[in-house]
């Protein structure tokens, strides 16, 4: 990049169930039952969207948001455009969850097609990991497919004076910070805490409603997506090499809590004093 050149930023997000609700699995244990759940994107990706908007506001340029998911994922894309992202791309599936290998392969191919048509993305942002599956794979696999450097766990981003490098900082194990200098174009996996995401305004939502969402129909299965030939999976890997297979999802064991009634009314006062003494709040 030349000094003063505008930035072209892409943010990749994933539609996930809202984490505040009770998670229920489908009868076959292969997916989360989303009938009664709202959807959002992960806090990591919310920070990625906000960072892309801030970079373009400061440096100039353009921003785009991309997701792979069902038609309903348009909602999350329009939320991103409501806070300032310029355009959106939906890789539309039939609603079936794609594995990280297939997801990364299709995203990488889409990025290459987008760059051929609209110019190179200087910086591509992913959430550090998906909020539902926590695979930690898609960003790394996309970076490998595109031959670009990647660092995960990022909580601060800035650019060199020449705008040829991006500098990124993450927390180091055991305390302190690690700072990386990556040549552009580059890919970063960002974490919650990178910034404080803004809320979409009413005028922003109205503007986002009028914008077009670019759609790429992929169907219900990675097989044959984007015209892949026989013998390849959606990541461009020889299908003779076995990949990961999901067997079943399992919910963690629920933590049960209990309450003890130590008395009623004024008669409970001695028991309260005794309890406070036992836990060290009052001296004996």
Task: Write up what this structure looks like.
- Helix content is 26%, strand content 24%.
- With 284 residues, it is α/β, with parallel strands linked by helices.
- It has one domain (7-227): HUPs (Rossmann fold, 3-Layer(aba) Sandwich).
- The longest helix has 19 residues, at 100-118.
- Mean pLDDT is 85; it is low at 223-239.
Brief characterization of the structure:
By secondary structure, this protein is an alpha/beta fold. Helix content is 26%, strand content 24%. The protein is built from 6 helices and 11 strands.
What is the oligomer described by this structure? single chain
The proportion of residues in beta strands is: 15-25%
Low-confidence stretches: 223-239
Helix/strand-derived category reads alpha/beta
Quickly count the domains.
1
Cα distance spanning the termini: 71 Å
Outline, from the CA principal axes? globular
Helices, by number, come to: 6
CATH superfamily: HUPs
How many strands, which pairing sense, and closed or not: the largest β-sheet?
9 strands, mixed
The assigned CATH architecture is: 3-Layer(aba) Sandwich
CATH class: Alpha Beta
């Amino acid at each position: 990049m030349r000094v003063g050149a505008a930035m072209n930023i892409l943010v990749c997000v994933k539609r996930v169930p809202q984490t505040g609700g009770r998670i229920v699995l489908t009868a076959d244990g292969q997916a989360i039952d989303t009938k009664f759940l709202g959807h959002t994107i992960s806090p990591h990706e919310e920070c990625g969207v906000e960072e892309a908007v801030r970079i373009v506001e400061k440096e100039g340029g353009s921003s785009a948001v991309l997701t792979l998911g069902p038609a309903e994922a348009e909602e999350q894309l329009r939320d991103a455009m409501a806070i300032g992202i310029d355009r959106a791309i939906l890789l539309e599936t039939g609603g079936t969850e794609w594995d990280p290998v297939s997801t990364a392969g299709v995203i990488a191919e889409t990025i290459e097609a987008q760059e051929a048509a609209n110019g190179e993305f200087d910086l591509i942002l992913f959430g550090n990991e998906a909020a539902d599956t926590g695979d930690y794979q898609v960003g790394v696999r996309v970076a490998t497919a595109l031959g670009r450097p990647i660092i995960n766990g990022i909580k601060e981003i800035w650019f060199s004076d020449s705008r040829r490098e991006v500098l990124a900082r993450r927390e180091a194990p055991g305390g302190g910070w690690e700072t990386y200098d990556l040549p552009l174009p580059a890919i970063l996996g960002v974490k919650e805490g990178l910034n404080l995401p803004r809320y979409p305004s009413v005028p922003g939502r109205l503007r986002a409603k009028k914008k077009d969402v670019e759609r790429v129909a992929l169907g219900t299965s990675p097989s044959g997506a984007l015209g892949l030939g026989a013998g390849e999976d959606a990541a461009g890997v020889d299908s003779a090499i076995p990949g990961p297979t999901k067997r079943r999802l399992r919910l963690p064991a629920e933590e049960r809590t209990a309450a003890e009634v130590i008395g009623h009314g004024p008669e409970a006062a001695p028991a309260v004093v005794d309890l406070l003494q036992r836990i060290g709040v009052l001296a004996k």
